[in-house]
Specification:
Aspartate Aminotransferase, domain 2; homodimer; globular; Aspartate Aminotransferase, domain 1
Chain lengths: 371, 371
């Protein structure tokens, strides 16, 4: 084979659905030489990472930890641990990631009750209530921020309904954690997962998960072993708990990065961070509408972290994205599934959510669409 | 919560069972700003990583890729994809990681035929042949380099026996890949996995896996979906194959690191690298014996990447390791399972395998054992 050259990848302006841009502080922390995964200093760092995650999740859950894989691994860890063959899960499907959750849950032998809504739509507590009255479930799952559609499902009042029916409330926070208000304890969410490469602006490779008392109890009530060794929380809780029992080798460098990314969130403060995400997205939305573009999701349920834009008739999706990337070094994304070829997805997450990026993207888009 | 300080972890001399030390070139590559996981430039890089992995595995297998988790995820990916409920796997258990493989395989509903040998011992083709005559199996698994014992199972002639009985040959190469001769194609191994944080000297976070034609055919012959979404090779083959279909977000930075680590292997050349591992370990072995210490594994099957040393009577395991870490900044490891409290595990892997590290460890150990 040919000899490899020096690493020669561009430094992109990342305005897609993730990974978002990463602060040089996080990159520097990640590049620190390694310690062992059972080193007392790494164990201190694990605690700090867990404390930082509790802050962004707004929870006191002891069992709050980064799963050693990207967001989909965190997603799978929740269903793998909650569900045994024959259990029922009700999943709100209003986009690509609800669909993925159905696929995963079925692999663990669960009965999947889909609650379908059109892409871009969201669920209300009343709808969950009505569905549970018809068909009870052990677990109810919704996607807080659907990365495929840009729609935000409001979680307030939802847990109450789910708990009234004796179910556990599972929430996908992949595109909300650290960018959009999310209050695990106040909203009484039993279990949630996220990714690091979205509003936390840390490279992909870890998946923050938080597990409350009811979900933890459900893990311990299982009759069968978790059908997934790597993601078995009954073992992971000893590795990330006080015992620090060896399970697998944690990705040391990724944890260095996550610690620094969480530190940046703490320095900024969650409220200020949420506001920055809202303000910059408002600026983007105004600018896109000034260009005559239509935003797919109505403002009342539009995500401040990810915006879906209808591709105008006669405009070549691939060509515009190619020109953005090649001429202006900007990444945005196309649509997934039902939105393929119909929507662009523009992310303003974490370190990517900056005024200079908004202005640059608007200006570049204007030039390309004029042609 | 308290504000976090700057990252302040030590720069250890890592002579345990992994992670090994990482070259500053790899750390710098890892710290490069990110591109998106579907960026054309990242897709080029994925190809380069795959080519580099084919070189270290000594294979032409198209399906050679880094699973997006640490070594145990790679391990689990092989059994999850090979085994369906009711299938039989024969696993050679001569240490901790054979044991782990049994646990994983059973979670996928497989019948596990254990072939047990004392810790530190190894398997021969004749033993595998005899065992398969008694009980056939769909898959036969052995650990090439047992990280818990320091013993090397010679793989030559083994596949022939396994294939004679119509089984697939699965090999754990976690502590051999890149440090000890391993010839996937020449030895006709059907499927193998490894970790990045051992002899490749890349931070933990990825798990190289290579899959030959027979194993791939077995994947496609499955009657049931793979009971693990994140590790489903029938989907991963489209992400890492020519289609590059989105599956999960690959850990971008870890792939930057792996590319550079593989580049370092290519620059050195595999043969020279194997020789360096052998020579430095020989120097370690001689030095340890000069100190009156007993090496647990006989030289003919002793790993050049990991050495197990019997802890002498009257010597406090924990105290010596603590002094090595605190006074000399050196990490070595204690024993796992049957070797707990009885053995130290000293790794000389990848970038850690250097004469200066050998001399330093011997000198530090001499001082501590004299006290």
């Amino acid at each position: 084979m040919n000899a490899l050259t020096d690493l020669n990848v561009p430094e992109r302006i990342l305005l897609g659905p993730g990974p978002s841009m990463v602060s040089s502080r996080v990159l520097r922390a990640m590049a620190h030489p390694l310690v062992g995964h059972l080193d007392p200093k790494f164990i201190e760092l694990m605690k700090e990472v867990q404390e930082g995650l509790r802050y962004v999740f707004q929870t006191q859950n002891q069992m709050t930890l980064p799963v050693s894989g990207t967001g989909s691994a965190g997603m799978e860890s929740t269903v793998a641990n909650l569900l045994e063959p024959g259990d029922t899960i009700m999943i709100g499907v209003n986009g690509y990631f609800g669909e993925r959750l159905c696929d995963m849950a079925s692999r663990y032998g669960a009965t999947v009750n889909r609650l379908d809504k059109p892409w871009g739509d969201v669920f209300t507590p009343e709808e969950i209530d009505a569905a549970l009255k018809k068909k009870p479930a052990k677990v109810v799952a919704v996607i807080h921020a659907e990365t495929s559609t840009g729609a935000l499902t409001s979680l307030e009042g939802m847990a109450e309904v789910v708990h009234k029916h004796g179910a556990l409330f599972l929430v996908d926070c992949v595109t909300s954690l650290g960018g959009i208000p999310l209050k695990i304890d106040e909203w009484d969410i039993d279990i949630a997962y996220s990714g690091t490469q979205k509003c936390l602006s840390c490279p992909p490779g870890l998946s923050p998960v938080t597990i409350g008392a009811r979900a933890r109890e459900a893990f311990h009530q299982r009759k069968t072993k978790v059908a997934n060794w790597y993601l078995d929380m009954t073992m992971l809780e000893h590795y990330w708990g006080d015992e620090r029992t060896y399970h697998h080798t944690a990705p040391i460098s990724m944890n260095y990065a996550l610690r620094e990314a969480l530190r940046l969130v703490m320095e900024e403060g969650l409220e200020a961070r949420y506001q920055r995400h809202r303000e910059n997205s408002q600026m983007l939305w105004d600018g896109l509408e000034d260009l005559g573009l239509r935003l797919i999701v109505p403002i009342e349920r539009r995500l401040p972290s990810l915006t879906t834009v209808a591709i105008p008739d006669g405009v070549n999706d691939m060509e515009i994205r190619k020109r953005l990337l090649e001429d202006f070094n900007i990444e945005i994304a196309g649509g997934l599934g039902a939105f393929k070829g119909k929507a662009w997805r523009i992310g303003l997450m974490g370190y990517s959510s900056r005024k200079e990026n908004v202005v640059l993207l608007l200006s570049a888009l204007e030039r390309l669409l004029k042609k």
